[in-house]
Amino acid sequence: MRSRRTAKRGPAGSSVGPPVGPPAGPSAEPSAAPRQRGPLLAPLLVVAIAFMFQTGSALATKVIGAVGIVDALWLRTALAAFILIAVRPRSLRLPPRRQRATVALLALSLLGMNLSFYGAISVAPLGIVVAIEFGGPLVVAVVGSRRLTDFVWVGLAAAGIAALVGPRGSIGPGGLVLSLSAGLFWGLYLVFGRRAVSTLEPLHVTTLMVTGSAVLLTPVALLFAPRLAQHPSAVALGAVVAALSSAAPYFVELVALRLVRAATYSVLLSLEPAIAALTGFLLLGQTLNGLELAAIGAVMIAAGGASWSAARRHAPAPLPPDGGAPV
């Protein structure tokens, strides 16, 4: 997802949710006005969702170390699909013919995004990967725009990313390519996701894209199935990752969206790179230098600024009200 992740994220002049479980699914902005209560609870819930996604990503690196990228992603995606189907079995029904190509492209985008993201976090710090990945949705957000402020936000994000990949950065060429690839697929995911949820129910779209992604991965995962059998602890941890990246944040997100406006939600989600950096430090011992932290801050400001600008002109926010992290 990030789950950038399905849901959940992500920016993109648009977006669908974070990537593998319900939150990873695209979702439309709620039509009802948020309830005027819990002024402090709402921001805390949004931050809690980001922590859930990034904790799932951090734990996923441990699963990757045990069984590899493909099996780790298949395990997470398959378990998330199981959860979604169990919640609403009828969501697995085929969409109308005119929507099938869009849903198929969405599933492929989700798969490409998550494979790239898992590959990136296996060789680079989590906070840096998430920050660079945000570039994809931001570019999608300003495509076709003529507003100077939009290009200022993109320029700021580009400067931050350039600093992250400089001589003093902690990410190598491989990690950079995979992070940029995750951002590219995230942008495509947002485009196809918005198109899909314009005529289909969000949970229906989420179930189909996550299940489709799991099915596409299954033939490759079967080649390494014996490795999963040899690591029962990794399978158990994979179940925790699926829960943290789908079931739990999906419920919390539904509560948060009733307490905070979608635009505010999007701005708060711009904190995700910082939360990813903190999670990487606490769970994985990943340390970043001052320049890298400042660069991540620049990307966060750019994401938050783009969301704020979009809200002012009533355009889709680059960070959607449904997560924004890869699934």
Q: What number of domains?
A: 1
Count of discrete alpha- or pi-helical segments spanning 4 or more residues = 13
Give the helix level as a range of percent. 55-70%
How many β-strands, per DSSP?
Answer: 0
- Tell me what portion of residues adopts beta-strand conformation: under 5%
Q: H/E series, N to C?
A: HHHHHHHHHHHHH
Distance between the termini: 2 Å
Q: Find the structural class using helix and strand composition.
A: mainly alpha
Rg, nearest Å: 18 Å
What labels describe this entry?
single chain; globular; disordered N terminus; mainly alpha; 327 residues
Please outline the helices and strands:
Layout: H1 41-67, H2 69-87, H3 97-121, H4 126-133, H5 135-142, H6 148-164, H7 173-197, H8 202-223, H9 225-229, H10 232-256, H11 262-269, H12 272-284, H13 290-312
Helix pairs in contact: 1-2, 1-10, 1-12, 2-8, 2-10, 3-7, 3-8, 4-7, 4-12, 4-13, 5-6, 5-7, 6-13, 11-13, 12-13
